[in-house]
C-alpha cells in the first residue's frame, strides 16, 4: 500500500462542495472515482482532504491524501488522475508520503481569500469569483473593524459539537 499527498486546484461552480454528498457531484467524489480508475477499478479509493469547501467555492493549492494498493510513480500520478477528471478539477502535484501522514491533521495552515469588487460595471472575467459592490465603501471603517480580527482567537463556539 502506498500513500500519496496531492495538491489540487478546482473551480467549484458546478459542485456541492468538497465533501461527497447525496445531493450532487462533489470534488471528493470526482477525485475518488479518478483514483479508482487509475488502478483499473480494482478497489474503491477514499480521499481525505485537508479541509472542506462549500458549494460553488473554488480552491487553489488544496491538499489531500489517499492510499493505493499498488505503487505508482508520483511524478506520473497527476497526469493519470487528470485523465479521469473533468477539466474544472486538476491535480497539480503528487508525492509519496509515510503511512502516518494525514492531510487534515498534518496541515500547518489554511488561507481563505474573499474578494470584493468595487467597480460599477461587472467584469465577465470575474463572474463567480468576486462579490461585486457598486456603492462606495468606507475603507477606513472596514480596516478599523478588521483590526479586531488580527491575532489569536478561540473559535470553539463556531465549530460542530462533535468536531475534533
Describe what this molecule looks like in 3D:
It is a single chain. With 164 residues, the chain is of the alpha+beta class. The protein is built from three helices and six strands; from the N terminus they run βαββαβββα. It has a four-stranded antiparallel sheet with strand order 2-3-1-4. Strands 5-6 form a two-stranded parallel sheet. It starts with a strand and ends in an 18-residue tail after the last helix.
Question: What distinguishing features does this structure have?
Answer:
164 residues, alpha+beta, four-stranded antiparallel β-sheet, two-stranded parallel sheet, 16% helix, 21% strand
Can you summarize this structure?
The chain is 16% helix and 21% strand. The chain is an alpha+beta fold and 164 residues long.
Q: Element order, helices and strands?
A: EHEEHEEEH
Looking at the structure, what is the overall shape?
Answer: globular
Sheet having the most strands: 4 strands, antiparallel
In DSSP terms (H or I, runs of 4 or more residues), the helix count works out at: 3
- The poorly predicted ranges are none
Give the spatial strand order of the biggest sheet: 2-3-1-4
- How much of the residues is beta strand, in percent? 15-25%
- The radius of gyration over CA amounts to 19 Å
Class derived from helix and strand content:
alpha+beta
Q: Tell me the span between the first and last alpha carbons.
A: 27 Å
What share of the residues lie within helices? Answer: 10-25%
Mean pLDDT value: 92
Number of strands: 6
Oligomer: single chain
